[in-house]
User: Which sequence fits this backbone?
């Protein structure tokens, strides 16, 4: 979120949000210049750049917020017990797939011991409840949806096996970075200040869940509140600067899992100039119910 959604910033920039149902559609929209920036998962952003798509990662969307979920009535209490089971993932180019591979390696198991199936995130809760799958590895709010529905139980959160885990990243087309760096900086600054505001306590998160659920995502605010507050660090919004060690780890896991044919260096797909200018920013001064943030 940024305070600039669908209205002009003091500098005259206008950011118009568009919702997509899947990452392939975002890719095509970026290539065709129908959108100039977007949030995608980190492995997909790296893969796009390696394929020649003219984009760069300039910031993160959040950290953590992914989990492996099993049925609430399942006897599974340990990851190794998922051997031979069906686990849904959002995409082969997802952090949620990489976290599974990382844990498989940690438990000295083989990836072929597990049946991973790609499934659209909105479908996984229903599939788990219907016993069509045994588990899923997904980002929020789908783990929360399963928990709230009483049929899902978090086996582990990504942070338990992946310190400093990243999820979505902000990508921007190269031509926009070159021609409109001021607009990119305004967007990054807005996201940075929103992150600081969200991490400033439960009341801010509860208000954000209510506002976004009703006006932007058409989701039950109670679900978003659960995802943002149960516990408060379930998803974090600071720090959001892209750090080389974090991305080197993702890239190496992608090579290991054959998502990349060759290596690609941090400076080839990340532009840190905008994140570097967010140091010293303060949270939005905003009281829930007021008409604007400053």
Assistant:
């Amino acid at each position: 979120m940024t305070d600039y959604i669908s209205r002009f910033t003091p500098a005259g920039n206008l950011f118009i949000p568009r919702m997509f149902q899947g990452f392939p559609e975002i890719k095509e929209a970026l290539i065709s210049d129908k959108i100039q920036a977007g949030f995608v998962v980190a492995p997909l952003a790296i893969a796009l750049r390696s394929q020649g798509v003219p984009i760069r990662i300039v910031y993160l969307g959040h950290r953590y917020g992914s989990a492996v979920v099993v049925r609430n009535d399942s006897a599974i209490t340990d990851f190794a017990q998922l051997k031979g089971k069906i686990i849904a993932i959002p995409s082969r180019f997802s952090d949620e797939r990489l976290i599974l591979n990382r844990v498989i390696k940690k438990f000295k198991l083989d990836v072929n011991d597990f049946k991973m199936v790609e499934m659209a995130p909105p479908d996984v809760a229903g599939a788990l409840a219907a016993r069509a799958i045994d588990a899923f590895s997904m980002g929020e709010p789908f783990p929360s949806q399963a928990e709230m529905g009483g049929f899902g139980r978090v086996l582990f959160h990504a942070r338990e096996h992946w310190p400093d885990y990243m999820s979505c990243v902000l990508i921007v087309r190269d031509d926009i970075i070159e021609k409109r760096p001021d607009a990119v900086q305004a967007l990054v600054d807005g996201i940075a200040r929103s992150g600081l505001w969200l991490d400033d306590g439960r009341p801010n998160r509860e208000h954000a869940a209510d506002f976004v659920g009703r006006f932007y995502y058409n989701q039950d605010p109670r679900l978003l509140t659960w995802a943002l507050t149960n516990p408060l660090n379930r998803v974090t919004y600071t720090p959001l600067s892209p750090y080389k060690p974090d991305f080197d780890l993702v890239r190496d896991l992608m090579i290991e899992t054959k998502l990349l044919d060759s290596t690609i260096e941090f400076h080839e797909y990340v532009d840190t100039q905008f994140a570097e200018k967010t140091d010293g920013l303060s949270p939005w001064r905003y009281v829930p119910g007021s008409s604007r943030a400053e």
Remarks:
- The chain has a mean pLDDT of 91.
